[in-house]
Amino acid sequence: MLDHPIARIENLRVTFETKDGPVVGVKDVSFDIAPGETVCVVGESGSGKSVSSLSLMRLVEYGGGTIAGGRLLFDRRDGQEIDLAQTDQKHMRKIRGNEIGMIFQEPMTALNPVFTVGRQLTEGLRLHKEMTKAEAEAAALELMQQVRIPEPERRLKQYPHELSGGMRQRVVIAMALACRPRLLIADEPTTALDVTIQAEILALMDRLKRETGTAVMFITHDMAVVAQMADRVVVMFRGNKVEEGTVEEIFENPQHDYTKALLAAVPKLGEMRGTQYPEPMRLLGVARDGVEPIKGGDDVLLHVKGLTTRFPVKGGFFRRHIANVHAVEDVSFDLKRGQTLSLVGESGCGKSSAGRSILRLVEPLSGRIELGGKDIVALSPPQLRRARLDMQMIFQDPFASLNPQMSLADQVAEPMRNFGTHTGAEMRARVEMLFDRVELPRSFLRRYPHELSGGQRQRVAIARALALNPKLIVADEAVSALDVSVQAQVLNLMMELQADLGLSYLFISHDMAVVERVSHNVGVMYLGRIVEIGPRAAVFENPQHPYTKALMKAVPVADPHRRKSEHELNFKPIPSPIHPVGHEPGPSVYADLGGGHLVLTSDSGY
Questions:
Q1: ∠ CA(209), CA(211), CA(212), 5° rounding?
Q2: Element housing 538 (H / E)
Q3: Which of these, 13, 166, 320, 340, is most buried using a 10 Å CB contact count?
Q4: Helix (DSSP H) and strand (DSSP E) numbers for the chain
Q5: Closest Cα to residue 463, out of 522, 523, 528, 398?
Q6: Band (347; pLDDT cuts 50, 70, 90)
Q7: What mean pLDDT is predicted for residues 407-419?
Q8: How far apart are CA 109 and CA 349, in angstroms?
Q9: Rounded-to-integer distance, Cα 336 and Cα 303, Å
Q10: Quick check: 143 pLDDT over 80?
Q11: 216-239 mean pLDDT
Q12: Helix (H, G, I), strand (E, B), or coil: what is residue 473?
């Protein structure tokens, strides 16, 4: 490795002007990045990690920020060193995309919806490399092959909305790499992706870095991703760098209390081996003596048999019904009182549709759903409304599920007001009690959703779901958007509530380490069907279906000595769940391995 770094950040300070005066986003941060090295910048939301990367690109000014101090030294291709903090925007245009590439967190905002993928990929090449149209198109095709996009010729003619999330993110990576930049900044590039796609993209970035000698600044809050990718790690907390070291030093011998707390909050796959029941995480600095495992009851609360949900696809001149999306296909399971059943799988496997069908937020095509002996499918609208007292949902995005114009106290009280379960002082006392339960201060009662952090908003959503004393809660990716330590706190809260109130959870997630921590039983979904279901220990420690094995193999482990190599990660692309009208797939047939462990034997396309 060369001694001379490509980029050096020295004493960076960034401020933002607000109505209440200036706010410091980054206080005093220094680190450097050498050629062919991956430096991971970790920390939670608001720690200043994205602000540091946007300062290097000089994009922070467009977000209302000002570089108030420090130097950003960058080694250019021609060998001259410049201070990016002093460079004017005209010069920056030549450097951006050409010598420094950036992969943004949200691919849909980084791509232009009105241009084809091919047009966007060739734009940078024609601008910076002065290629002809034909040369740029040939280079774009090669880039698409490098990032392993299937049918690249066809994809170049498509628009961003026609691609899946994983493919869009690959296009963004291809765009960032188009001009072979000396420095690549990746800002949470895999947060929104499934486990299998994340594993492939991390391996792809690692391979491209080795082949091109590019320096990589990788920003993330996922410690398992850090263990997979990093050479060196910079830990940030509230705008300051609190620790820096090699990946082995940080994981094996962390020095700062914040780094220790961050690592303690990471659920690790395989940690629960040998335990039968879920138990809360032992967080740093939180006394958890006598943590009881959650056994749950023996009687079945929710019985689902042959659940099938399809969505019509309309097309042609008269918008006729031409095909169906087979979202949920012949799904059956039982959920016992006070226990958690997790449904796992990739995006589009039908897990969210299954959860919504059970609550009849989406009307199922056929099947039987019994909650406490009551047939949910047969209920009339007024009866269904009464039945909703027993079943509630926690959505993935609390900001979208909370009303921005209502105070938090009113939002938590609203279900009680709707159903007339509590009134007056009794209702006020119950709202205060619910806030205490989800560990939010009572001063928040008068606040509004925009005044809270993501984790606090999710706690309000949990308090609202508990307002009516439900028996069943469907948690749809309830912790996937949260920071590691906040996620650990929310999971512990959900498990404490389960132990105290006897709640049953249908927990929908694609995070295998979280699922291992909270579940009694696990169902793995693929193309609308459950391909394997059983007690957590059986499914995690003895997976039988090839898809379950592939899913387990893809999960990054928070241990730098257990990195995944690219040849381990060859996943089959998922076939389309859309079939023409009249297509009737066969029933799901299972082999019983004993102890409630079932594996799909009928052809599931894997």
A1: 70
A2: helix 536-541
A3: 340
A4: 21, 23
A5: 398
A6: confident
A7: 94
A8: 25
A9: 9
A10: yes
A11: 90
A12: strand
Which letter, b or e, does each residue of 523-532 get, where b requires 16 or more Cβ atoms within 10 Å of its Cβ? bbbbbbbbbb
What are the respective helix, strand and coil percentages of the chain, to the nearest 5? 35, 25, 40
**Per-residue confidence band for 1, with pLDDT thresholds at 50, 70 and 90:** very low
Closest to 295 in 3D by CA, of 340, 231, 353: 340
Residue extents of the structural domains in the chain: 1-99+182-187+194-266, 109-178
CB 222 within 8 A of CB 198: no
Buried b (16+ CB within 10 A) or exposed e, 88-104: eeeeeeebbbbbbbbbb
Nearest-angstrom CA–CA distance, 12 and 43: 17
Which pair of tokens denotes residue 533?
A: 């279901």
- Percent with pLDDT over 90 in the chain: 41
Q: CA of 251: how far to CAs of 186, 189, 233, 241, 293, in Å?
A: 21, 22, 10, 17, 28
The predicted model scores a pTM of: 0.80
Q: What is the pLDDT of residues 563-605, one digit of tens each?
A: 877 666 666 667 778 888 888 888 889 999 988 999 999 765 5
Residue that has been written with the tokens 């010069």 in this structure: 91
Helix (H, G, I), strand (E, B) or coil at 330: strand
Provide the 3-class DSSP secondary structure of residue 398. helix
DSSP-derived secondary structure letter, 450: G
What value does the mean pLDDT take over residues 53-66?
Answer: 87
pLDDT surpasses 90 at 400: no
- The predicted pLDDT at position 16 comes to 86
Contacts of residue 155, defined as CB under 8 A and 6 or more positions apart, other chains included, come to 117, 144, 149, 163, 167, 171
Distance of CA 213 to the CA centre of its chain: 29
Spell out where 432-575 has E strands: 472-476, 504-509, 521-526, 529-535
